[in-house]
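Let us work through a complete example step by step.
Step 1: write down the sequence.
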Amino acid sequence: MTTAWMGVLALELVADKTPQRRLLQREVAEGLNDAMGTQLARFLPHEHQYGFAWSGALYDPAQLLRPGFPLHAELEHLFHAGQRHGLAAGHCLVLCEREGRMPTARLEPDPELGAGSLFAIPIVLTGDAAAIAAANGPLEDALCEQGLADPAVVYELHRDLGVAFEHVRLMSLVDLAAMMAAQLEHVGLGCAWTLIEEALYGRPARMVETQTPLGQSLRLDDGVAWLGFRSYSLHAHRCDPADASALRTWLAHLHEFRQLQSLLGAHALVVRAQLGVADHACAREVDDFVVENLTDALPVRVLLHEAAGLGVVACTLVDALGRPVEHRYPLSAGAIGRLRDEAVARGLPIERLGRVALSEDGMDLGVPGPTRG
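Step 2: predict the structure and record it as tokens.
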């Protein structure tokens, strides 16, 4: 039976503003504890007793909307742990920083997230199964109309974080999920939410499959998100030979791939590349690269293919005769750094091209030279 209600205090910042810090100062968080609990208590049935726990830190919503809802689970766990050491069942508990660190690693804001204007503070109500069942309906109904945070709460948050807010509102975690779904649909990434929602609320063994706006495959299978990936040569061979836009459309597909990869990863889904290689058997996924082996020759240098806004999109290892030996397509932010380390260890010089070089026929990545590019 459910013994906790999961909610958030959602903070929408004024456009282009950034909070001075992601952790509330300890004295501010402790000062807000009673105010937060009092406001939420207005909407609760008086015949039941509720505990209240929240985290004095700002999180990107994606960190809250992860399988198992780990931040809320941690708050519930810490509240119950506190009861074994004198915390009463109906008390308010705030978990806040000490010397710049949160009490547990799980409550630390993810430093890779939080570039947007929406942040969330997780909230948990605890009680027995009957109490939580009685609270769900009133909270869902009341917070839609009366969820704006009290002015004193907003003022303290503004004073501590040094930023103005468009809105500060109490809402359920379900409502936060609905808000994120609508935002992703608005920017054309609703296909990703199909997988995220299934990972959050669905059956673990269920397989869900969809397509991206550009027609790339996207599948959730046994908790793993499989995202379609094409090397440039595979993409070019599937285009009309007379189509001069093959590179441009491939880069658009790669941009979409990276967007979805980042988004799904932010929600803690394991993301793997699904290679469309039925007619292109030389490609394989190795660690954080898709690799195409072309010859068995020894490479003597490495070329970095680059595109505006995407950085390095591929690497070509070249032999002593100037022929491609291998193409590597990075699948992670750290892949290029590891390639550089490998190149140094093997004594291979690295050359940045500043563009994507193609073969003479335009059907594969190439090596710049008198007759190439």
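Step 3: interpret the result. The mean pLDDT is 89.
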